[in-house]
Design a protein that fits this description.
homodimer, 338 residues, alpha+beta, 60s Ribosomal Protein L30, Chain: A, Phosphoribosyl-aminoimidazole Synthetase, Chain A, domain 2, 2 domains, seven-stranded mixed sheet, five-stranded mixed sheet, 10 helices, 24% strand
């Protein structure tokens, strides 16, 4: 892990992008022996005794890049928790406790701070966790870095690695709403009030699929799992790289508001569904012989599990809908590049 | 915990200061039942089973307020780890794993990022921990938020609460170096090269008293403990408030370089020792009957434990050196105010 990547010595953050930056950092870290979860998966973990692991995750929200003007401080704080919970959900782990590092600009008032505190608390309680501590300091931008903790059995963790050819690829919901919502919030695209409300809510009031993730974990039918926070296409490429498989997608479930938005703005709904971001569905592979049983279990807890394709030996990620074939590109939302 | 502090509704962060901001946030959080460590202590914790706790801590370094120009990125990254380890040390807990949220300005290069990664790794390995994950995003200032994790028995934690009248107050080292070092780095004060080197090193290359903290924890002789990261005076007031006791100080151990610096700059060395900050000694109270035994144990591991006064029923914090009595004020280094 100590080899310097000489070719990247003079690159800027924008040339590198978030994923290369993380790789560069990992290159300079000593590896903890026997890591139960490899670097680069959605969470980190360490074993405390026979097979029992502490699961950790930190994710940072910064108003420089992550907070559209229309999003309230309460919503931004809650969302910071939700995006971390989503990673726990994708591994099948329940978050117990949360600590928060809060960077506040001097211009913030006590009312702003109270709004942030209430949003953090609301996000935590919504998923059964508590904020148990933190730290605050002065920053130019608002920064909310939340760290989540939970316990799990090592064998119960759903990793990005493990998908096998023949497994079924499935997702927990419809795609494209956040891609469309971000176009409204950041690029001034228009929509009817009713459509706009739904699309903007998907960005400002996201939900993590925690109950689905815990149910999938308990079902023991999942072979690999990730959330779609960097976009569906990116998630598929991550699963592909980590499991050394490919996919053939025969269906991309898209929300009806996305079709309406895409039509009135002459955009491609499939593009919005594949290459959006900040969409917190789970993307999992399931042993095909227990697919129906798993779909029923998820239906029983009020969720949905939609098969969208199959896992292939061939490493390509193909989309094949109504005889129209295409390659899904490895792109999505990325800090420093997007 | 849900009562709004109405009097603070319109205050700015600078009027509030770090400590009131943290209080304001806590007012709006639901309390986790049976918290093994109360809000406001140096670390957070949650119980995972009979008496066994996971210990957590997050502390953020921001180059807007925490990084003097002379401090390298490597040093800043290492220091972020050290300041978190110091809190673990003060509770007698060994850190196992660390996750990091890293906010990077666009202007940073791959060389800068490598320097930060190496500094984080060096800090972690110096204290036997590993960096096992993290997140990065774009920010205006450099932000390094580290979260530390470890395991402990609830009864072994050295809290801020627990000091009893008659106990001896003791510290793990000399004071004043960082107070003087910060005056050199931030306010342009002068010193001879040899003195300057020592004082600046205390700011740029701090050490956490982890071995001392673990040894004190194992000794079972400590009744209350805190680190001196916000200054010795502030730590004494925190111990006083949390333990509902006072102190009479008969000695403040000050480094010889601080006397030299203070003399040539016409400053009060006691002021530098009491009201500095970012000084990572441990400040503990010890049952007086086992003081000598504890001093020997700390000497055996290469550290030192210096008695500086006694715990009193009277809540005042008095300094009484050579017959000169004075009150130690509740001030120190505070974000947003300093």
């Amino acid at each position: 892990m100590k080899n310097k990547r000489k070719d990247s010595l003079s690159k800027s953050t924008t040339e590198l992008g978030e994923h290369n930056i993380i790789g560069l950092i990992q290159d300079h870290l000593d590896l903890m022996p026997n890591m139960p979860v490899p670097f680069g998966d959605d969470v980190s973990a360490f074993e405390i005794e026979n097979e029992r692991v502490v699961v950790l995750k930190t994710d940072m929200l910064t108003n420089k890049t992550d907070v559209p003007k229309e999003m309230s401080l309460w919503q931004a704080a809650r969302k910071t928790i939700v995006m971390n919970v989503s990673d726990f959900a994708s591994k099948g782990v329940k978050p117990t406790a949360i600590i928060v590092s809060l960077g506040l600009p001097r211009t913030f008032t006590s009312k702003d701070i109270e709004e942030i505190a209430c949003g953090l608390n609301a996000g935590a309680r919504e998923y059964g966790a508590y904020i148990i501590g933190g730290d605050t300091g002065e920053t130019s931008d608002l920064i909310i870095a939340a760290s989540l903790f939970g316990m799990a059995q090592k064998k119960d963790l759903m990793l990005r690695k493990g998908a096998k050819a023949g497994d079924t690829l499935a997702v927990t919901g419809l795609f494209g709403k956040t891609g469309a919502g971000l176009k409204i919030l950041l690029n001034g695209f228009k929509a009817t009030p009713k459509v706009k409300e739904k699309l903007v809510a998907s960005v400002c009031m996201p939900k993590a699929r925690l109950i689905e993730g815990l149910t999938l974990g308990a079902s023991k039918t999942v072979t690999a799992s990730i959330d779609s926070s960097d976009g569906l296409a990116w998630s598929l490429h991550e699963l592909s790289n980590n499991s050394n498989v490919g996919f053939t997608i025969d269906k991309v479930p898209i929300a009806k508001e996305v079709f309406q938005f895409a039509e009135s703005n002459r955009l491609n709904p499939l593009e919005l569904a594949l290459y959006g971001g900040e969409e917190y569905e789970l993307v999992v592979t399931i042993k095909t012989e227990v697919l129906e049983k798993t779909i029923k279990e998820i239906k029983n807890i009020g969720g949905c599990l939609i098969p969208i394709g199959t896992v292939t030996k061939d490493l390509k990620i193909l989309i094949d809908i109504d005889g129209k074939k295409d390659i899904i590109e490895p792109r999505g939302w990325e800090h420093f590049k997007s």
